[in-house]
C-alpha cells in the first residue's frame, strides 16, 4: 500500500482528494493536515510514502514544507498541489526535490497516476506544469545557477555527461539507450549513478541541472 498524506487548508478539498485516492486498491490516506507545519509533523509520525501539499496554506506554505521535509531522512516523495500554474512555483518545487506538480483541476486518474509515479521514485508533471518548465528553460538559466551547475557536473565521466545531456532533452531511459546504443538497464544504472553524484532527488532535478549547465539544448 502507498501511504499518503494530504495537506490543504480547505476541508472540502481534502475530502475530495481523499475520496479519489481511497477508491484505489493500492493507496491509503493515513493523515490529513491543514497547514505545512502539521504536514511535516504528521509525515514524521505516520511514515508516509507520498505527501500531497497545497502551495497556499497558513502557518507554513507547501513549498516551505517541501524544503523542511527535504531536510529530514524520511524519504517522503512530495507532490505539490495548487490552483496556480506560476512558472516560479513549478521550478522552485522541482529544484527543492519535489516529485511533481499537479493542478487541483487534474482528473482523478491523473491524481492517482501521479501518486503511483511518485511512490515508484519517478517524477510527474501535469501538462500545464510541463509547459511552464519548458517556457522557463527556453528563456535560459540565470548566470549564477549556470556557474553552480557547471561546477557540479564537472566531476561526471564522459559517458555520464552524455546520459545527463539526454535527460536534459527529456528523453526516457529507452530513448536514451537507443541514442547511445546502450540497453535500457544500463542507462538506468547510469541515471542512478548520476543522481547520486549530483545529489539530485529525481531525474527532473537532474534534467534542470543539465539545462542550467548548458547541456541538452
TrEMBL record:
Keywords, sorted A to Z: DNA-binding, Phosphoprotein, Transcription, Transcription regulation
Domain HTH luxR-type: 149-214
Residues recorded with modification 4-aspartylphosphate: 54
UniProt keyword Transcription regulation, yes or no: yes
Keyword field contains Phosphoprotein: yes
All residue ranges annotated as the Response regulatory domain in the record: 3-119
Record-linked Gene3D superfamilies: 3.40.50.2300
Name under which the protein is recorded: Response regulator transcription factor
Gene source species: Streptomyces luteireticuli
Amino acid at each position: 500500500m502507498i501511504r499518503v498524506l494530504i495537506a490543504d487548508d480547505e476541508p472540502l478539498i481534502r475530502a475530495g482528494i481523499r475520496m479519489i485516492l481511497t477508491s484505489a486498491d493500492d493507496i491509503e490516506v493515513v493523515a490529513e493536515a491543514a497547514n505545512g507545519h502539521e504536514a511535516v509533523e504528521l509525515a514524521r509520525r505516520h511514515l508516509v510514502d507520498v505527501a500531497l501539499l497545497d502551495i497556499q496554506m497558513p502557518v507554513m506554505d507547501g513549498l516551505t514544507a517541501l524544503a523542511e521535509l527535504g531536510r529530514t531522512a524520511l524519504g517522503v516523495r512530495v507532490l505539490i498541489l495548487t490552483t496556480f500554474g506560476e512558472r516560479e512555483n513549478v521550478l522552485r518545487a522541482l529544484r527543492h526535490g519535489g516529485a511533481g506538480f499537479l493542478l487541483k483541476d487534474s482528473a482523478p486518474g491523473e491524481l492517482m497516476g501521479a501518486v503511483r509515479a511518485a511512490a515508484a521514485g519517478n517524477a510527474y508533471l501535469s501538462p500545464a506544469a510541463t509547459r511552464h518548465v519548458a517556457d522557463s528553460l527556453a528563456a535560459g538559466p540565470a548566470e549564477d545557477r549556470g556557474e553552480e551547475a557547471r561546477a557540479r557536473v564537472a566531476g561526471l565521466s564522459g559517458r555520464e555527461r552524455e546520459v545527463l545531456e539526454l535527460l536534459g532533452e527529456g528523453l526516457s531511459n529507452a530513448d536514451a539507450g537507443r541514442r547511445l546504443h546502450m540497453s535500457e538497464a544500463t542507462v538506468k544504472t547510469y541515471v542512478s549513478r548520476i543522481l547520486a553524484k549530483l545529489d539530485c532527488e529525481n531525474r527532473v532535478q537532474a534534467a534542470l541541472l543539465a539545462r542550467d549547465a548548458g547541456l541538452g539544448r
